[in-house]
């Protein structure tokens, strides 16, 4: 059973998601929070598999709550999915950087919501690298200052692992990386996993963020 925590200050929104999730035979809503501080407290108490986290909440917003949860070693297995609109690229970028495993738009189709929760609960990044890349490029293009890279994030990577991070940042799947590097898909997956471990990335989405912040990929170059 996949245990889900809903965090949104709008009770009607929570009720809507709760109703949609009720259609999933393997999904159970174990708690609801109407602000970020409560989401953090309930995460520590209930240890849900997935938190659906709105960004705009009182007292502590969803971004701050995501940072706290992602940084807590006791909540390593808790996955945060950001609830957003099409106009909140900055929040999405910051949440991915903080450790969120992906994001959903609030008008998502019911079947897509159920699949998304299952994917994240299984330990995978929710969204395709290319989608993450598009959000990050949109944010970086409008940002008054470029984001600051995390110091030493690439320092422990081998040359091959750095190349793999660059390809992940460009939106390539493991199969496409394997074809590009002339290795097996298993080897490509191993390189990605090792790069994630060395860079301290919780999932693939964070590797995309790292690729941009380190300069391995620059806006407009991803498709080249």
Question: Could you write a compact summary of the structure shown?
Answer:
It is built from ten helices and five strands. With 224 residues, it is an alpha/beta fold.
How would you describe what is shown here?
This protein is α/β, with parallel strands linked by helices and 224 residues long. Helices cover 50% and strands 12% of the residues. It has helices at 11-21, 36-46, 62-71, 89-98, 110-121, 129-142, 159-169, 174-181, 185-199, 204-213; strands spanning 2-7, 27-33, 50-54, 79-84, 102-105. A five-stranded parallel beta sheet has the order 2-1-3-4-5, sandwiched between helices. Helix 4 (89-98) crosses helix 6 (129-142). It is globular and about 50 Å long. The model has no long low-confidence stretch (mean pLDDT 84).
Query: Which structural class do you get from the secondary structure elements?
Result: alpha/beta
For the CA atoms, what is the radius of gyration? 17 Å
The strand count comes to 5
- Strand proportion, as a percent range, falls in 5-15%
Would you list the SSEs in sequence order as H and E?
Answer: EHEHEHEHEHHHHHH
Q: Give the overall silhouette.
A: globular
N- to C-terminal separation?
Answer: 42 Å
Q: Give the oligomer, counting copies of the same chain as homo and different chains as hetero.
A: single chain
Strand order of the largest sheet: 2-1-3-4-5
Number of helices: 10
Biggest sheet layout: 5 strands, parallel
**What percent of residues adopt helix (DSSP H or I)?**
40-55%
Mean of pLDDT: 84
* Uncertain residue ranges: none
